[in-house]
Design a protein that fits this description.
It is a single chain. This protein is an alpha/beta fold. Strand 1, helix 2 and strand 2 form a beta-alpha-beta unit. It is 35% helix and 25% strand. It is globular. Helix 1 runs parallel beside helix 2. It has a single domain, classed as 3-Layer(aba) Sandwich (Rossmann fold), CATH 3.40.50. 35% of the residues are buried. It binds S-adenosylmethionine.
Length: 195
């Protein structure tokens, strides 16, 4: 939601760009990218049939026909070959890779990083990564050590979020409110290859 809010405030321009979302959950930033004019948004999740089906339903329920042509859903387990992902983007790496709340699984760090390194465009590509305090300071540091060793650099940024926080209804139709006090705790980073 915080990454999505940063997109809605145009902290990262997605119009005309190719976007890859990893470990997408519901795929919110990937879907928003389409609405903001992304050339292609590829939303990926662990290749479990039920998860991918749910994401596909989300894609159809939230995008019109034209928008759906710019959005794809695929299963991808981190560290697995990325040929199919690159092929969807016309044989090119992606301009933006979104990683929201995925680095708390420390045993997955190397695999997640492999996918990032293989899919990010070396010429100007950016990873936008967010993590909640439950990730743990040491886990965050570990992931950033790995990516620095792999030739990447990172910078924290403050995501813009609405003053009143974010409200929505859950799948049972119940209202949920996330206040700024919670959302402000989310750490946000932009990552790129060292020039
Ligand atoms: C905490 S959720 C974050 C979901 C979403 N990005 C968000 O911010 O709400 C982490 C996601 O990573 C996915 N995941 C976990 N291990 C994975 C793996 N090895 N390969 C691909 N996805 C994985 C899970 O299915 C889960 O949806």
């Amino acid at each position: 939601m915080v990454l999505n809010s940063a997109l809605l405030y145009h902290q990262f321009e997605v119009a005309g760009k190719s976007v890859l979302e990893l470990g997408a959950g519901l795929g919110l930033p990937g879907l928003t990218s389409v609405l903001l004019g992304a050339k292609l948004s590829l939303i990926t999740e662990y290749p479990d049939e039920a998860i991918v089906k749910m994401l596909e339903q989300n894609r159809r329920a939230n995008l019109n026909e034209e928008e759906q042509t710019r959005c794809r859903v695929m299963g991808h387990a981190w560290g697995e070959p990325v040929d199919a992902l690159i092929e969807v983007n016309g044989g090119n790496q992606f301009d933006l890779v979104f990683v929201a709340d995925c680095i708390w699984m420390v045993e997955q760090h190397e695999l997640l990083l492999q996918t990032c390194l293989r899919t990010l465009n070396r010429d100007g590509g950016r990873i936008v990564l967010t993590c909640f305090p439950h990730t743990g300071k040491l886990n965050v540091e570990r992931f950033f050590c790995l990516l620095t060793d792999a030739g990447m650099v990172y910078e924290p940024f403050k995501a813009k979020i609405p003053v009143e926080g974010i409200s929505f209804t859950d799948s049972d139709g119940e209202p949920v409110s996330l206040g700024r006090n919670i959302l402000d705790l989310v750490q946000c980073y932009v990552i790129k290859f060292k020039e």
